Amino acid sequence: MPVWYCTKKTRRARFAGGFSGLSVRHFGKPAVAFKRTCATFLAEHLIGDVMKNDPTSKEDKKGKEGVKMKKLYPDSYLFRRWGDGLSEAEQREAEELFQKYGYNTFLSDRLPLNRELPDTRDSRCVGKKYPEDLPNLSVVLIYLDEALSVIKRAIRSIIDKTPARLLKEIILVDDCSSNEDLKDMLNAYIAFIHEKRPGLVKMVRHPKQLGLAAARVSGWEVATGDVVAILDTHIEVHVEWAEPLLARIKEDRTLVLSPVFDNVKYDNLEVIPYNAAADGFDWALWCMYETFRPEWYKLNDPSQPGKSPSVMGILVVDRLFFGEIGLLDKGMKVYGGENVELGIRVWSCGGSIEVVPCSKIAHIERAHKPYQRDLRDTMLRNALRVAEVWMDEYKSNVYVAWNIPIKDHGIDIGDISERKQLRERLKCKPFKWYLDNVYPALEPHTGLIISNDLKRDLCLDQGTIPGNLPILYGCHVHPPQVCIKILTLNPISTEISQSQRCLVDLGVGQLPGLYDCKEAQSKNFHMLWDFKQVILLRETDPKETSGVSFRLRLFLPSCFVRRTRGQRWTLQQRTWGYSTVRGHLLRHRLCHPIPELL
């Protein structure tokens, strides 16, 4: 049946290794099913109380109370909640640094390197005893043109929060940064550390940019510790972050572990605690948080590790086992997909992945990634690389998610022969086993015939206002209007993502709505659409006097009434290797009512 759905994600972060547009799904009982987006889910489930520690120093506040300076950049994400009292010169400096780094470097430069973080662990983590004979640890920090104060704070926190007997070395991997202060000034800071801890910090500098996966591998190649922790540099570790990870690997060397990330806001650098969640992904291989499987909740102990389909990018692993399992795919470019590839490979080839709630790391959320503002092209390339190596007959789902044909798509994914040989050498299980046993919530589009994107100057959009009324909005690349038409021979999946809503006709009026797909199915709402034209109604806010602000509604005319004021949709056909049912599949009309499929 042809069904419209929209997967709404926030602009918070696709951490296909970072955090910039996570959507969230909930699978398994005892939790209640819901259709929340990432922002809602985190607010209601993942995020604890916001830490009230104001990172602005008392000296900065003193003498400025009651003074409200004119904001030069009122529309900047940096100044929406921060920056009152800054002079115009300070605002210019702060905004320039913000655009350069994606977070508040102006404030970071003024915070102490050893600032205290709140202990956000579950109370059952506090006071836990760990073995004395834990394996030692090499910490690898990867960066590209990171702010110097952020790197120094990461190093400082690792030294302060990791027992000296466990911390063998810190390895800095510079993936060809251009910032001058990351040379002599960083070298000077390392020399200062070596006065008390000789040889603790090692430096790897790449003459050309290798990309995230290859940079992480180069850090592993230098490491000599029993266990390797591969981290971003825009982090601060919490107290006792290392011990629970090392203890778990001591029990099972085939584990790949992830700590729990607290969120450091990019504007005011406040720490927002997150609770533990599994690391999942969608068919486009964008990462998102999942709830753990039902068996974890039955433990009734949130301090216990939980199984996870993948990692969010930061990982801790036995050094030798990481080499045995194939490291990371160095054929990945720039950023994205490498963590999903690792997750599939580890589970399929003899290992497993866990999130360890008693290990917490505070991770700065960037407003943007300065080294590449648009990650779509590299993420697409890397996703196809994963699909071709690991996903067998399910790889078509990735092509559907990106709306490109399986053949003749013109995208060079590089040489994958070595990765295919690795899969054979490790005797890895088929991808179907991974779906059945590790990630059953990743439901494939079985019985798929065609999938189409809406492509026009105006696109179907869920909007930002809660509710069921879709709007038409100027087309852009952001996820609130990622809407596709799925034509399938099967009913709606029982495992359909709770963030998916279908375009339905309630049968009582002329305005279609967006409703939870399973709810719509259970209530027998009309979800079979015959696409031809949509009538636009302009709805002007009476408070607006300029007449510029408006939104457009979808309107369902009678199928037999011709209207001149029509919006004609352009649908770009993609076939996915399945037989086409009719030769005129795209001759559709959006009208009311719908008597039959075609």
UniProtKB/TrEMBL annotation:
Positions of the Glycosyltransferase 2-like domain: 138-275
InterPro entries: GalNAc-T (IPR045885), Glyco_trans_2-like (IPR001173), Nucleotide-diphossugar_trans (IPR029044), Ricin_B-like_lectins (IPR035992)
Subcellular location: Endomembrane system; Golgi apparatus membrane; Membrane
Primary residence: membrane
Membrane topology note: Single-pass membrane protein; Single-pass type II membrane protein
Coiled coil listed as a keyword: no
GO molecular function: carbohydrate binding; polypeptide N-acetylgalactosaminyltransferase activity
BP GO terms, sorted: protein O-linked glycosylation
Cofactor annotation: Mn(2+)
Pathway membership, UniProt: Protein modification; protein glycosylation
Recorded superkingdom: Eukaryota
Keywords, sorted A to Z: Disulfide bond, Glycosyltransferase, Golgi apparatus, Lectin, Manganese, Membrane, Signal-anchor, Transferase, Transmembrane, Transmembrane helix
PANTHER family: N-ACETYLGALACTOSAMINYLTRANSFERASE (PTHR11675), POLYPEPTIDE N-ACETYLGALACTOSAMINYLTRANSFERASE 8-RELATED (PTHR11675:SF50)
Similarity field: Belongs to the glycosyltransferase 2 family. GalNAc-T subfamily.
The name this protein goes by in its record: Polypeptide N-acetylgalactosaminyltransferase
Species of the source: Paramormyrops kingsleyae
